[in-house]
Specification:
The protein folds into two domains: 208 residues; 183 residues, no CATH class. The protein has twelve helices and ten strands. The strands form two sheets. Strands 1, 2, 3, 5, 6, 8 and 9 form a seven-stranded mixed β-sheet that branches. The longest helix is centred in the middle third of the chain and has 37 residues. The chain is elongated and about 80 Å long.
């Protein structure tokens, strides 16, 4: 009975990732903020110094379809005609004046002076990114230099708790790189101006431009990205399934020599796990760095099917092992492919050159932390069953069959 329940659990777990062909890419939107007149502020009619800003917001059509009927015929494919027809609804969503919590809005510290800083979004076109088509919205604002600018982002607050906004740009001569989410209680402070108000929890521009805060933000993003990347998790599971990792084995009652052999075998299994996970880390770190710095390129058109294929091949080798093929070598080679999948998010975030190394470092360490959490979770979860006789047949073979089927489904979606 325990075996059937465990198998059902694995089936449900894997089914979570079967709904999206681009399972490694979460729900993200992108905001680019630029000061239009970097040479110096303009002067308003009242003599106040003004800055002009340009905002570009890219939101996935598949995400917007959660809020608006963009896919009018519900066929799972959004056409350009449907996109144009939904334009008034999209612009109204972002510009709703009656809503005090704007889905995506700009405010000043002084509400009475906010009229000139109010963003009015307009549809500017579409972008094709690694996980589909995005609507590109633009807005501009002319704001007093002395006023604090705070950006509110509330899109998908009640629809998707995992949604993130990746912010990049340049304001007042400083590079800007940070992340925020609809769940964040405080607004994202874009320009502190001369304001010294009662909102100390808001993050100042200097923090968003510092190396430490960029690394911290992207560390969190890396953990988040790995733990919601079902295909990366499926590959890790395929690697560790054959390893019978016992943490709480009972003291053997056999002869000392036999007990020593058993302890040696257990240590060997843990050494294989360490080598395998390290090899995967080295592999995807190499291509993540190469792709992020632009030293090499890889199209998502072949990377995404290859990631699915890596899961299928690894799971098949659990069913039909090849004695001459080492698991750590396999993890290293396929890790090179997975690294290109990780790089997609950093590339699309368009990080400023000066902050890119710190974003990369934080993101990569975050991915490793998420990977460690995932593997540790599996080890702890399997402890109650790893010593059972049926473990190899039900968990290893049955789980590998499920992984093959899931990977084939992802592969078919990604090449279609």
């Amino acid at each position: 009975m325990g075996a059937r329940k465990f198998l059902l659990f694995i089936s449900c777990l894997l089914a979570l990732g079967s709904g999206s062909a681009l399972a490694h890419k979460g729900s993200d939107a992108y905001l680019d903020v630029q000061q239009v007149n970097p040479a110096g502020p303009a002067v308003g009619s009242g003599g106040a110094a003004l800055r002009d800003y340009r905002f570009l917001l890219a939101v996935a059509i598949k995400d917007l379809d959660l809020l608006l009927p963009i896919d009018a015929n519900a066929d799972g494919k959004v056409t350009w005609g449907e996109t144009k027809a939904a334009r008034p609804l999209v612009e109204e969503l972002l510009n709703e004046a009656a809503n005090t919590e704007l889905p995506a809005g700009l405010r000043t510290a002084d509400p009475d002076g906010a009229s000139g800083c109010r963003l009015t979004w307009q549809l500017d076109g579409v972008d094709r990114r690694s996980d589909g088509v995005y609507l590109r919205m633009v807005a501009s604002a002319r704001c007093p230099v002395a006023q604090t600018l705070a950006f509110h982002y509330r899109l998908f607050r009640n629809q998707d708790a995992s949604h993130r906004l990746l912010v990049a740009g340049r304001i007042a001569g400083q590079d800007l790189l940070t992340t925020t989410s609809p769940q964040q209680a405080t607004p994202l402070l874009l320009s502190p101006g001369a304001y010294r108000g009662p909102d100390p929890a808001a993050r100042p521009l200097a923090s968003s431009s510092s190396r430490w805060f960029v690394s911290r933000d992207y560390f969190s993003l890396g953990v988040h990205h790995l733990l919601e990347g079902y295909d990366h998790l499926a590959f890790l599971l395929a690697l560790v399934l054959p390893l019978r990792l016992g943490l709480f084995a009972a003291a053997p009652r056999a002869l000392p020599a036999v007990a020593a052999v058993a302890r040696g075998q257990a240590a060997s299994v843990w050494w294989v796990l360490l080598r395998t996970v390290t090899a995967f880390t080295i592999g995807h770190s190499i291509t993540l760095m190469l792709a992020t710095f632009g030293w090499t390129q890889a199209s998502p058109r072949w990377v995404e099917p290859a990631i699915a294929l890596s899961i299928a091949v690894t799971a098949l080798l659990n069913l039909r092992p090849l004695p001459w093929l080492r698991t750590d070598v396999l993890a290293l080679l396929f890790g090179l492919v997975h690294g290109y999948g990780f790089a997609g998010l950093l590339l699309e975030a368009a990080a400023p050159t000066g902050l890119l190394p710190w974003a990369l470092a934080g993101f990569n360490v975050g991915v490793e932390a998420g990977q460690l959490l995932a593997v540790s979770g599996w080890v702890l979860l399997s402890q109650a069953l790893v010593g059972r006789r049926w473990y190899p047949g039900v968990v290893v073979r049955g789980g590998s069959v499920l992984l093959v089927l899931l990977a084939v489904w992802w592969f078919w979606q990604r090449v279609g």
